[in-house]
Amino acid sequence: MKKEKVLAMLLAGGQGTRLKTLTKDLAKPAVPFGGKYRIIDFPLSNAANSGISDIGILTQYKPFQLNEHIGIGSHWDFDRNTGGLRILSPYTNEIGGRWYKGTANAIFENMSFIDHVDPDYVLVLSGDHIYKMDYKKMLEYHIEKKAHATISVIEVPWDEASRFGIMAADKLGRITEFAEKPEVPKSNLASMGIYIFNWKVLREYLLEDIKKEDSSNDFGKDIIPAMLGDGLGMYAYTFEGYWKDVGTIKSYWEANMDLLSDDNQLNLYDRSWRIYTKNKNLPPQYVSEGSIIKNSLVNEGCVIEGHLEKSILFSEVAVKKNACVYNSVVLSNAVIEEGAKVCNAVIMEGVTVKSGQEIGEKDSNNVYLVSADDIIKE
Amino acid sequence: MKKEKVLAMLLAGGQGTRLKTLTKDLAKPAVPFGGKYRIIDFPLSNAANSGISDIGILTQYKPFQLNEHIGIGSHWDFDRNTGGLRILSPYTNEIGGRWYKGTANAIFENMSFIDHVDPDYVLVLSGDHIYKMDYKKMLEYHIEKKAHATISVIEVPWDEASRFGIMAADKLGRITEFAEKPEVPKSNLASMGIYIFNWKVLREYLLEDIKKEDSSNDFGKDIIPAMLGDGLGMYAYTFEGYWKDVGTIKSYWEANMDLLSDDNQLNLYDRSWRIYTKNKNLPPQYVSEGSIIKNSLVNEGCVIEGHLEKSILFSEVAVKKNACVYNSVVLSNAVIEEGAKVCNAVIMEGVTVKSGQEIGEKDSNNVYLVSADDIIKE
Amino acid sequence: MDNCMGVIDFSCTDQNFGTLTKKRAAAMLPFGGRYRLIDFFLSNMVDQDISTIGVFTGTKIRSVMDHIGSGKPWDLNRRFNGLFVFPPLYDDEKRTSVGDIFHFHSNESFFVRSSEENIFISDTNMLLKIDMNDAYKCFKESDADVTVIYKRVKDPGGRFINCDKLAISQDGTLENIGTNLGTEEEFNLFAGSLFIKKDVYLKIVRSAIEKGNAGFLKEALMNSVKRYKFNCYEHEGHIESIRNVKNYFDANMNLLDKDIYSELFSQFGIVYTKNQDEPSTFYKENATVTNSIIANGCIIDGNVQNSIIFRGVKIGKNAIVKNSIIMQKTKIEDNAVIVNAILDKMVTVENGVEIIGNHTVPYVVEKEMILSREEII
Amino acid sequence: MDNCMGVIDFSCTDQNFGTLTKKRAAAMLPFGGRYRLIDFFLSNMVDQDISTIGVFTGTKIRSVMDHIGSGKPWDLNRRFNGLFVFPPLYDDEKRTSVGDIFHFHSNESFFVRSSEENIFISDTNMLLKIDMNDAYKCFKESDADVTVIYKRVKDPGGRFINCDKLAISQDGTLENIGTNLGTEEEFNLFAGSLFIKKDVYLKIVRSAIEKGNAGFLKEALMNSVKRYKFNCYEHEGHIESIRNVKNYFDANMNLLDKDIYSELFSQFGIVYTKNQDEPSTFYKENATVTNSIIANGCIIDGNVQNSIIFRGVKIGKNAIVKNSIIMQKTKIEDNAVIVNAILDKMVTVENGVEIIGNHTVPYVVEKEMILSREEII
What we know:
A: 378 residues; alpha/beta; 6-stranded mixed β-sheet; 31 strands; C: 377 residues; Spore Coat Polysaccharide Biosynthesis Protein SpsA, Chain A; 29% strand
């Protein structure tokens, strides 16, 4: 008896418009995070660490940087002779071409691929979230409950609950109610957008859903409610730990800053659940005479001659003499020239902060997004 | 000084409608050929053998089988940490999604990818043709001639010339005239659809071409004539050897049969220019007592108990006792049951020719395409 | 097979294979038209989802490294886990010249570091396709320390003389392992492989080193039958013992039995090997081939009967190949005759040369030799 | 660099590095925060488009196999060409105990089979980034049989005593290679690498074996200076000779010069090494770091000056690390003091322990040692 076969389908086509210039040239899953990662590294590494060996990545919006980052999947050990990682883009058939509409539609359009892989279970993931999770445990739960579908949920603050798909479940974990972005939420158990379906069951619902002209072909809006309406066995799998959907510049900046607290729940140094990313083969960082670095995360290839505090530097950032970086996130290849001051800011890739320039103020709630063309205050 | 950098762009989106049921579920480049290959193996292996290390494959029409076949490119040694093989599918940006229109449009839509690779030269290939060619030599010719563009040409029979893009060139090889599918061809030098462009030059013409509303965005119809009109240095590189565009069932059957003649120009046994393909890990073929095999090409995993003459068997074909296969091409996993007779036919993948069934006649020009659902005579 | 790592132990002796093992370990012998023996062991493990495999080679490592390389054909070229090759080292502080137990001991960290708690160990003397998932289930459910795989065989002809023989008690416990001298016609043949708990393995190896009472890993395991809980799992299918040229020849020839062909090549997963990118085999006008196994890349214009033909072999017009094993890229020219022979890789048999061996002592021709016609002066 | 293959020869002696080379060849010494010496040789070749590389290792192959594996970090895990590792073999018919010339001879087929007609050979005694394309151009245009790479050095301090010294004639021909005893302050230092035509290489190795007058490949090449056309190419950049612990220590420390850091890490392509998937380095509240090179994955809360810190090192609060090399995953607890020392991988320095070496004889601590406080009874 072979192991139960799981196919992960990672939705990585999100545009992430609220992240403004950060997503001007790339999809949201490709946004840099945590000093050396991109957001998609988290679900990809989770999948690798959970022992998943088949994964399809559904891309659509500006996929070049994402494709370049993922390559053949070798950083996550997904470069296999058979199976492994496959990038699934929209395609044409006799009838013509169709772009992916809702989340469920993206899965529907790749039905023949999934049938070819022939999995017992399909694990639907989103490329937009930052978290560490063992999908194997969720699958065990799904099998144990003999569920048709399992939805991973997390407790969110009550005042944010109306931003999410909100679940009510009985004592055994069986979902009794589901409401997508309810105005008056009945619970604070939010869907994390992580689903496990029995492929045979999901397949039928996708085929039904596509027939409905008014459907938005979305898991949260259409498929899940339809399944629930038919009385299928649907269970909530409660996740405890760090989980973040960085929707805005400010929450992006905050999520990065979270990593600087000693007891941050994401703990990137945990060797038992490593986060993998594309290897850039850069030399170690160089810290010169006279520099000061405190409470900061610094990546390879950086050259630090100035003053750094409570900041995150991505690769190959240069902080020149007497420059000062405080409470900021500096993406790769940026240069902070002599005497420049940066505070409460996100500096985009390759941006040069000119000598003498001052960005941001110390005691304020504003966060600044600095690109080559403009500075956005939020 | 580094080597001149070449990027190959392989157009693999062709539907190949005239191949009928052969291309029902796959793009033309994925059509099986020569006992164990698919058509795309030829340009891919040529690229590998020519020392090309960057290749983009442009897919659009039913790409699953093609993607599965290509995988991460490891069979052609294209699975690199940097560079190597990339599948380029249509994608969306802020404005929306666009499918590839003409051949030139497919390159245009991937301009940001090409700019990222930053090649000196772009080699445009088609995934539809069967031939062995050293692109390195063509590149050397291009460089030697200081050409802006070089087009590979082959002499075709005069009566077929009007099917092709036809070139006239002066003594030095400089192209003086180009006509796409001319009714009255002035020469029999046909374009093979293989182009080398200086990227900077091509880039400009693509940007110009996209502005023209009436353009079909095609190399042969638009880009080449425009360049020629502007007096650019365009050279014809004459190729001698086997080259075939299998457009119809009959020409497909013939091209396969060509391989059975002792002096066939494609010579698959030449170890100095091997054709690579996906490895299926099948056991050797089994030839039982009482079987007869003559003038035939048989692939791994076949079990032969019957009579085989002038035929090509792909992998895992079973020819049962007293079955007879003559002058035919039998694709993978087909079964010819006891006593069945097959003559002048192409048997599609997985088809079972039932015991006692007789297909085709010995002395006729008809070729039969046998699928699970029907038999097409041509 | 979660929680189980694999070990392949090249303890098989190379001495009985003549020039066939001059430059290669017995485990690297070509087999079945396109494989090496080791392919069967590696593939059997990989097909049943073992993802960490250690190969403990003998000293002839060049052929191992050439063939296995990074483990790509078996999808074992992984960043995490995958294939680990352990040749014996020159630089150990303490080494003994006989046996491999120190070799295993000095690589203790490989076992300690890996997360799996069980080990499947196989030597390369026996060739078989094991239903490993079923055997592993038996091992885990019985909670034995060691589950030994065996086959109940009837052996009136003495094929398995000198093989290992198990005595099994009524309740399925292993009592002892000895050498079969042929006293009983039917007996329990040790299949060369077993499951063992990692902590038990580590204790057994350490104890053998400290007591100095075992040169080989196998010996150390056998010495421990009384100290730990050993039980047995019966293999139902075909089995070959490959201990000398004759066994080796017969094991190849047995593939001409279609059931054995199907079992060894297809049951419990397929067999992977290094890809040579050969085109299909071409049967020419004068080819007459019957009852044979033919690999790809051959060009055949002669007569082939009851033979195993490896990749890229050329057989000329009117040449006859009968009851023979012809290895990779060997060339048999027109009118040559080969009977009851094993031709190693890249041999050339020139036009008209005849070589005729006997089926009990196959004629073995060393790699790259050229058999030419004697000049008559 | 079309038509040229690469060879890395581990002929560098391991004897002068103490416990640093107990389990690893000198070529495998950790260097520059995240590399091994061999990474520089491999990367220099790969970055300049050599795609077939043979590594002729000494007997300590475990660290080579662990680190290089299939060659993936250098993109050398290729189906065609790529990386070939040649450990010395036990099974050669003829072997000599001194020198590696038989090792090269017995792997002749590697050279013969490859399609390239020229070879770049480098030993691992010297560390430098060569402008190989320029040197290769010089080699090809001069039509020499061998082009030897050297650097004109001024050496009043005797850093290069006992290194190889070239005598070059007016017309640029190599006259001889001897050992530098320091007689001249300025001399031509052999950089450890050369280009050679493949057919000349094959003749030289065969001749050395037949005459029995050279134990090492280098010796055989040097013996042939008069018989073939040897010329020279001058290296303009930085060069380090790594022959003993002191050289090794200094070569690391020289990286704190920003020009040398840039040259060795960035000129003529980047340096690849095995990826350890470390997160960024975290500088905590009490960190004070100056004039140091810090790799990823470290957590630093102490004081670091003039030091090279490898990946995954932890330095506790109030700890002081000065003029030292701290290798991978070493842990320095609170209040410890380390001066003028080389701490090998996975060393633990417990709370409050002080070790102070001298800059001319750095204090070397072997892998995995634990330095604890003496108990006062």
